[in-house]
Amino acid sequence: MVEEEVKGKIVSGRVWKQEKEPFRVGSRVVKNKKLTSWELKKQKRLEEKQYKERLQALKDEKDELKRQRVENLKIRREKKEEKERYERLAAKMHAKKVERMRRREKRNKALKER
Questions:
Q1: Where in the cell (predicted)?
Q2: Contact 58, 66 (CB under 8 A)
Q3: CB–CB of 28/22 below 8 Å?
């Protein structure tokens, strides 16, 4: 059995043509010998995809912070409004009755949220 020879040589091993170097010096230098053009394109696409994912993650994080600030502001305003409402009621009614109303409303609100 004859072993497979290196590509470009025949079985007998005789070299019929000499391998010539390219005439131009610039063409001898191969910038990226390991990667083919397809692999370069694939790598570039992967980098672009990672870049877009990172931008999206930053954008989502920014939106989440903004949404959280708005939510906190709403909660703060609701608490302030509720406090003012109870103060107005306290001016009209007895303090103990206002406190009972407050507890009852909190209990009802907790039951509604379930």
A1: Nucleus, Nucleolus
A2: no
A3: yes
DSSP 30: -
Residues 6+ apart with CB under 8 A from 70: none
Question: Please, what sign has the CA dihedral across residues 36, 37, 40, 41?
Answer: negative
Residue 19 has what pLDDT? Answer: 75
Query: Quick one: tokens of 8?
Result: 């470009």
How far apart CA 101 and CA 75 sit, in angstroms, is: 20
Look up residue 2 and give its DSSP letter: P
First-last CA distance in the chain: 82
Apex CA 72: angle with CA 79 and CA 104, to 5°? 30
C-alpha to C-alpha distances, 109 to 31, 84, 103, 104, nearest whole angstrom: 70, 18, 10, 9
| pLDDT tier, 7 (very low <50, low <70, confident <90, very high otherwise) | low
